[in-house]
Amino acid sequence: xxxxxxxxxxxxxxxxxxxxxxxxxxxxxxxxxxxxxxxxxxxxxxxxxxxxxxxxxxxxxxxxxxxxxx
Length: 70
Ligand SMILES: [Zn+2]
Description:
Blueprint: E1 2-4, E2 7-8, E3 15-16, E4 19-21, E5 35-37, E6 42-44, E7 55-57
Antiparallel strand pairs: 1-4, 2-3, 5-6, 6-7
Bound molecules: zinc ion.
Zinc ion is lined by residues 9, 11-12, 14, 37, 39-40, 42.
């Protein structure tokens, strides 16, 4: 079991709940992100280390979106 820790949405500051998974899928798109803020349409990539998490906006098309600045 792998736990992806909870994060804070960079858009609105709400908590994105932690998720427990057997396998961590690679997240290249908002839809692949296991932790998402539906209000901001921002997804956090599935990195276990919060320092390595990138945020993907639902409307962003390219896979390598720079992290949102705080
Ligand atoms: Zn948000």
